[in-house]
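Query structure, 441 tokens:
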């Protein structure tokens, strides 16, 4: 964002950089560290927390940062930051408690661990930037409630497709065009992909096979579009979204006719995706305008004759853009993307293969389940199991492939924070369903 660069330059001149604690040191987290260390003024990565210290050290090393110190206590961490010594630790909660850290960037892709991190950070009045659509799409609304009470910002990140979609949505709305669809452009969608099928691609790009599988099987895009819906007031047109496939290379301006126009124009609009269109992997927003004079201008500016006008961003640059979100939160209390209130769209667990009673469900992008986006009132009325809570659950009964799981189908692991927060979210936003769903299990 244009206003961000001058604000950060001023902080650099004044010697008051935004101090960032990074939780996670995987592929994307290392990119964030690299970007802030090498390309961003007015901001510092002062500490990195990761369960494997060697990976945290690697993140600093790849960013060209030397003199890293391993710390084990809060006092050690605060002293290291005060002395401008980059710190690494296995304990993410220390970063959340440190008085001289301004913003926590959470990049783990976990749900249970991330929930602990967010609550601790918020409790210590820190802004939180999530590169974690999974936790946001599962318990984001209740985490946002906690952040609001503490007077801090909880936000998804610029660069990831949801943040890019939201920036485009705000632009379209800001020029007086009514957004009726926020869309994601995909190159592949196969709900039965798993870590074995995706291992080659994962090795090519230095990523984890299960993470890559969650992209391919539709779970990731379901989470991404769910949090866009929750941040815009939109919904899905049907379970799983419409998701048309077009010939590879089809210009994005030609895809509007692939969606039922009634679903777009009636109600609050929808989130959806397309497979095969260009420019991938960008995002797009379809909008409409009621004023005939403005329609004439839009036609003049090569956006067509309506009733739908296509706006698009041809790329999303992930970690390159995350510092923009950090600055927006710390300097302007502006969230890139956050829930408006309660959940409007959820991501529900669906059997990737025939499942047997007694089996324990594996993680996101695994061999057993994939996620489908569903409107939250429908998900609650049918007691559907959010895929964000599915890992570690034990199946009570056999289920056939493509069956959508319910809470009645599983036994939840005991003592998880994510389950407690999800129950609290239901009690706050869906009290009519909360007594008959997960709260009784």
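Result returned for the query:
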């Amino acid at each position: 964002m244009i206003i961000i660069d001058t604000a950060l330059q001023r902080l650099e001149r004044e010697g008051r950089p935004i101090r960032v604690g990074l939780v996670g040191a995987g592929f994307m987290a290392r990119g964030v560290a690299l970007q802030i260390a090498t390309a961003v003024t007015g901001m510092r990565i002062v500490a990195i927390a990761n369960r494997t210290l060697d990976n945290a050290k690697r993140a600093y090393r790849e960013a060209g940062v030397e003199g890293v110190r391993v710390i084990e206590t809060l006092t050690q961490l605060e002293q290291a930051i005060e002395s401008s010594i980059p710190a690494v630790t296995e304990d993410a909660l220390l970063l959340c408690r440190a008085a001289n850290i301004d913003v926590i960037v959470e990049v783990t892709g976990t749900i249970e661990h991330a929930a602990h991190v967010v609550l601790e950070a918020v409790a210590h009045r820190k802004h939180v930037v999530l590169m974690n659509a999974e936790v946001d799409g599962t318990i984001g609304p209740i985490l946002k409630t906690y952040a609001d009470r503490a007077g801090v910002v909880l936000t998804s990140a610029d660069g990831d497709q949801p943040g890019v979609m939201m920036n485009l949505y705000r632009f379209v709305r800001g020029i007086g065009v009514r957004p009726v669809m926020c869309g994601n452009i995909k190159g592949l969608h196969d709900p039965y992909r798993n870590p074995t099928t995706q291992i080659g691609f994962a090795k090519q790009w230095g990523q984890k096979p299960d993470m890559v599988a969650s992209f391919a099987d539709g779970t990731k895009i379901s989470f991404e579009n769910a949090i866009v819906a929750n941040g815009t007031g939109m919904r899905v047109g049907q379970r799983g979204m419409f998701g048309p496939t077009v010939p590879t290379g089809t210009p994005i301006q030609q895809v509007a006719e692939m969606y039922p126009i009634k679903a777009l124009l009636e109600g609050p609009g929808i989130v959806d995706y397309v497979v095969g269109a260009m420019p991938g992997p960008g995002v797009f927003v379809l909008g409409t305008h009621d004023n005939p004079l403005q329609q004439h201008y839009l036609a003049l500016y090569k956006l067509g004759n309506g009733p739908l006008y296509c706006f698009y961003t041809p790329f999303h640059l992930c970690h390159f853009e995350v510092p923009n979100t950090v600055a927006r939160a710390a300097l302007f209390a502006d969230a890139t993307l956050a829930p408006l209130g309660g959940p409007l769209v959820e991501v529900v667990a669906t059997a990737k293969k025939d499942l047997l009673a007694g089996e324990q469900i594996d993680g996101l992008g695994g061999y057993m389940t994939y996620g489908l986006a569903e409107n939250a009132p429908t998900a609650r009325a049918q007691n559907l199991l959010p895929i964000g809570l599915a890992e570690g659950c034990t199946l009570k009964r056999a289920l056939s492939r493509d069956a959508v799981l319910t809470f009645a189908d599983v036994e939840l692991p005991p003592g998880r924070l994510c389950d407690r927060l999800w129950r609290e979210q239901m009690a706050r936003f869906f009290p009519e369903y909360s007594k008959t769903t997960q709260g009784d299990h």
